[in-house]
Amino acid sequence: MTQTCQNCKKEFQITEEDLQFYERINVPPPTWCPECRIIRRMVFMNQRVLYKRNCDLCDKEFLSAYSKDFKGKVYCIDCWWNKLDPTDYGRDYDFSKPFFEQLKELFEDVPRLGFNRLEPTIINSDYCNICSELKNSYLLN
Fold first, then answer.
1. Which of 10, 67, 84, 136 would suit a FRET pair with 95, their CA atoms being 20 to 30 Å apart?
2. Cα dist. 112→30, 49, 117 in Å?
3. Are 133 and 127 in contact (CB under 8 A)?
């Protein structure tokens, strides 16, 4: 079966096995192509776009996966590993409030690591995110 992607208008194939699977789990066939579906699923993760911003703890400028417009706290690598005390964000569970509401509040309150790398193993690779053990690399993740 050939479908036209509702998002990018590109044609894509849905096999008979796929249709049987969708029928078995009671979902309609996809209207978006596989590429657009993966983009939509991964939109919450930013691994490739880097921003200059200041650490919300030490105010040092650093590269981050979060823009200056991000509402939460973002820490540089040094502050995240050496100055952040995770026990400061512990809280008791409130049985009168829904679980996911409390999880969302916790997620918004805890600082984020602005740039995820294993620092001692990175040499001359400033623009690489989610990595370790690199030398003279650029824009890898």
1. 84
2. 34, 16, 13
3. no
Whole-number Å distance between alpha carbons of 36 and 56: 34
Per-residue pLDDT, 60: 94
Q: How far apart are CA 40 and CA 44, in angstroms?
A: 8
Question: Can you read off the two tokens belonging to residue 4?
Answer: 């036209």
Q: How far is CA 7 from the centre of its chain?
A: 22
Contact present, 121 and 133 (Cβ < 8 Å): yes
- State the DSSP code for 6: T
Query: 113, 77 in Cβ contact below 8 A?
Result: yes
Cα 37 to the center of its chain, rounded Å? 16
Closest CA to 113 of 84, 68, 139, 77: 77
**pLDDT tens by residue, 59-113:** 999 889 898 888 889 999 889 989 999 899 999 999 999 999 999 999 999 999 8
Amino acid sitting at position 102:
Q
